[in-house]
Write a structure and sequence with these properties.
Elements lengths: L2 H25 L11 E12 L11 E16 L2 E14 L7 E13 L4 E14 L16 E14 L6 E14 L9 E15 L2 E14 L10 E15 L2 E14 L7 E15 L2 E12 L9 E13 L4 E14 L5 E15 L4 E14 L6 E12 L3
Antiparallel strand pairs: 1-2, 1-18, 2-3, 3-4, 4-5, 5-6, 6-7, 7-8, 8-9, 9-10, 10-11, 11-12, 12-13, 13-14, 14-15, 15-16, 16-17, 17-18
């Protein structure tokens, strides 16, 4: 790296740090800015290298520095809980400054304990961020001088009748999600999702519950071109089991039927088997393992292509080698069956491994290696990438 480029990165990062600190101070309530009760302020600084930043078949590498601030605030009023959170991300690239971006994630919520049988939860979130290239079914070549940028607003309400220890519990969730893209001609993907989820649990004893769940969702797109209107209705029905048999194992498994019906006849409806598995296993107090599996429909990011089936599997493991050192690794694979006038199958694989070392009571140093790969029936969609990242993170509580 030349001295000129190095100075440029330092100036950019300094300005972004100042900007971030100002935002953080403005967001803190006046009455709480003088007290640390229920309030935590943390941040991470990351330095990384990626040999295929844009996730294209023809790779281009770059170096980046990131600053990630975090604010968490929790308050108790009687039996009720209130929380506020902010996560930010400020990234500067060494060679291609046009790819620099900021991420912002705000959340505000409340948990109300009305009685022994009835509780409720409300949450509002706002995101202003980029879409990481290569994470959708679209061509990464459409990303030119900047990443796809979008804002996302979400309102969620949950109502609980009964508790986890009750013979039966009923949970009703309602959420509205509104996403809008602002660049790279992605406006045809602007969508409002309205969803209703009802789940009934029956307690079998021995910390095991069976469940029945129904999901109904409507996706309303607002494209300028009517031919690209991917509006659809999605219904999913599950039966499953939730368990925490011992302190060593817990999880949830749901299996059922899903259907996605499009309003426009040009898009193919998607129906079939759906399942979700999320299982935690702790063979020892210092070893954690998570196994996951999903088969679900996803919205398409390509113009003129409807939704598709995505089947994925994952395993993550972490192991504390000592009081200060932890190693971790994960593997993820997926298969995307995309139905369109071309028709294709994409396969993805992700590997992540690293080591974390606690320098002192409040600072952790971490080294990560990540590998991603996508194979496809279409040569232009194939890519492979490798990234290395060194980070320093505070852990104040």
């Amino acid at each position: 790296m030349s001295s000129t480029k190095g100075k440029k990165i330092i100036v950019i990062v300094t300005l972004k740090l100042t900007y971030c600190l100002v935002i953080t101070l403005l967001m803190l309530p006046v009455g709480l800015a003088q007290s640390a009760e229920g309030l935590s302020l943390n941040a991470s600084v990351l330095i990384g290298y990626d040999d295929n930043v844009l996730r294209r078949s023809i790779a281009s590498s770059d170096r980046a520095i990131k600053f990630l601030p975090e604010v968490k605030l929790k308050s108790l009023y009687g039996k009720h809980q209130f929380y506020f959170g902010y996560n930010g991300g400020f990234t500067s690239y060494s060679d291609n400054s046009s790819l620099n971006y900021d991420d912002h994630n705000l959340s505000l919520g409340a948990l109300f304990d009305h009685s022994r049988q009835f509780n409720s939860e409300f949450q509002l979130t706002y995101q202003d961020k980029i879409e990481q290239p290569g994470t959708t079914n679209a061509y990464s070549t459409l990303v030119t001088n900047e990443f796809n940028q979008f804002s996302n607003k979400n309102a969620l309400a949950r109502f609980f009748y009964g508790s986890r220890k009750s013979i039966g519990q009923f949970v009703l969730a309602v959420d509205v999600d509104d996403r809008e893209y602002s660049n790279n001609q992605q406006e045809f993907r602007n969508v409002e999702r309205k969803r209703l989820i009802g789940t009934m649990f029956y307690n079998l004893g021995l910390k095991t519950r069976v469940l029945f769940e129904a999901r109904v969702a409507a996706f309303d797109y607002t494209p300028e071109l009517q031919i690209a209107d991917q509006s659809n209705h999605e219904n999913t029905y599950f039966a499953g089991v939730e368990w925490q048999v011992t302190a060593k194992t817990s999880g949830i498994f749901k299996i059922g039927y899903q259907s996605k019906d499009f309003e426009k006849q040009q898009f193919s409806d998607v129906t079939g088997l759906s399942y979700i598995l999320n299982m935690d296993w702790s063979p020892y107090s210092y070893t954690q393992i998570n196994v996951g599996a999903r088969r679900e429909t996803k919205e398409s990011a390509e113009l003129g292509v409807g939704g598709f089936l995505d089947t994925s599997y994952s395993i993550m493991a972490s192991h504390e080698m000592s009081a200060k050192t932890e190693v971790f690794a994960s593997y993820f694979s997926s298969k995307e069956d995309i139905t369109s006038f071309l028709g294709r199958t994409d396969r993805r694989a992700k590997i992540n491994m690293g080591i974390a070392y606690r320098l002192n009571s409040w600072l952790i140093m971490q080294l990560d290696y990540r590998h991603q790969k996508r194979d496809s029936d279409i040569e232009l969609l194939k890519f492979s990438s490798n990234a290395v990242e060194l980070s320093f993170s505070s852990t104040f509580k």
